Amino acid sequence: MFKLQDIIRNRAWLKKQHPFPHVTATGVFVEEFFHDLETEYSDLLQSGVSEDADRRRFSRSISGYDAYAIGFSASTRGALAVFCSPEWSDLLAGLFNVSATGHVNVGAHHHELGSNSGWIHNDFNPVWFPSDGGGGTMCFPDHGRCSYKTGAGSLPAHDKTEVVRAVAMIFYLFNGGWKNGDGGETGLFRAGASIDAPTARVPPVNNSILAFECTPHSAHAFLHNPGRARNSVIMWIHRSMGDTLARWPETALERWAS
Amino acid sequence: MTRVCVLTGASGVLGKAFIERYATRYSIVAVYNRHDLSLTTLGQSYVDPLAPSAPAERTQYPIFTIQADLSRAEAINGLCTHIIEQHQRVDLLINGAAHRHWCNLLRPDSLSDLELTFRVNVMAPLQLTVALARSFWQFHPEENVRERRNVVNVSSTAGVYAYPDLGQTCYAASKAALNHATYHLASELWDVGVRVNAVAPNSFPGIIATERVIDQIVAFDESDDTGRVAVIDA
Question: Tell me, what's the ipTM?
């Protein structure tokens, strides 16, 4: 497995306060490792995209979101497995001093050229994991037995756990040559702002990262990409419901529309 | 009172050098876009991802930072509104953001950045200047004169001279347009007491020192000049 100190090139990440606390960094990984990540990502895309949900390739599995998604798991191998590692989860937790549970949701999003902007949302969502959904110390979603969003599925209630998204991460790759005007940035918004008025636009520059703590204020959205396709690895780590409710009222949680 | 300086292109060579030299003299609103402003400021600090609990570095520069894509008109309007809301005044606007794409015209992609070049190098300085004039300066003409409020556009000798065979057509045309816009802005904003000048340096820090460009910007800020394009060459 990788030692993060060997593959992380940039040790000076920027923690910004506006419009809500978030961290960005460019030149995240050493060149050779980043090349491996792009090669593996490219291999995934080689399988094509599917308009129907398909776990083996990028597919339209997120209702109302103009992107193709694919999930990673404990069986993910190669450089991309770094995002499934406990070390990477700990790194994200440490950025925001979050007490993480070991439940992770990792995958990739591919937005075709000209994809529509997403909706503004905060990722402050309660989600479900199977209690035995493990890969070592990490626990991954198992949508077939326990819906990540609702917990629905074949598992009995005592075999699943409700937790809350704690930190979101977007790592940008396979976007070589991106320039202003190409779009596909991640917009960060102040409360009440419209999709056309992000306070900050995080560009999808290769080998760069955006991470933020999921709170009622972490309003963000994918922005229309008229110039080129946009690719990223996405990830959430989670905190316990108890920790969450000790800090925010239950009404602040963004429960999924049924 | 400390002068409020809005500086676009803050993460570039000129922007960072200006901040390092004048962060305590001006209240700087540093506007950046694609490249992070790699300084600790009032709104951002460094964190080591492998040692996140290590003590944060003390704020290096007491400046304000805003990210904005100046190639988008709506971003400029939002930026202007934010600046006036937060700072209530702008004494010096340095239009330093630039898009630099040199390409031989016969190459297939030679004009791929034409629109972006003009958006960033010509339209953005015009739009930001006009937005500040409409939302703030036009209501304070006497104060503008008293406070020596002014705009400095960062142009280039490429907008003054033709350097052959460097693929500068689009870039040079945009800088020439910026020079001419500077003359007209100076004329139009004279009535509200705001001066407009431009610096037109050769390449920095390669051919001339970045400090010379900054010296001229500050000289304009301290002067009564308006409608001048100051060429800075070797």
Answer: 0.91
- DSSP code per residue over A146-188: B-TTT--SSS-GGGEEEEEEEEEEEEE-S-TT--TTS--PEEE
Q: What percent of chain B has pLDDT over 90?
A: 76
**Closest residue of chain A to B32, computed from CA coordinates:** A200
Q: Distance (Å) from the C-alpha of residue B50 to the closest C-alpha of chain A?
A: 6
B129/B97 Cα distance (integer angstroms):
13
- Coil, helix or strand at residue A142: strand
CA end-to-end distance (rounded Å), chain A: 40
The token duo for A135 is 């890969």
Answer yes or no: do B49 and A94 touch at CB < 8 A.
yes
Other CB atoms within 10 A of residue A63 CB: 8
Nearest to B17 by CA among B219, B218, B200: B218
A&B contacts, CB < 8 Å: 76
> In sequence order, what are the residues at sequence separation of 6 or more whose Cβ sits closer than 8 angstroms to the Cβ of residue B173?
none
Going by C-beta distance under 8 Å and a sequence separation of 6 or more, which residues neighbour residue B179?
Answer: B153, B155, B159, B160, B198, B200, B229
Give A88-108 pLDDT, tens digit per residue.
Answer: 999 999 999 999 999 999 999
pLDDT (tens digit per residue) in B143-154: 999 999 999 999
Comparing CB atoms, the residue among A4, A11, A203 nearest residue B34 is A203
Look at A16 and B44 and tell me if their CB atoms are within 8 Å. Answer: yes
Measured distance CA(A192)–CA(B162) in Å, rounded? 49
Token readout for B122 is: 């010509």
Mutant choice from B45, B47, B66 vs A, greatest count of A C-beta within 10 A: B47
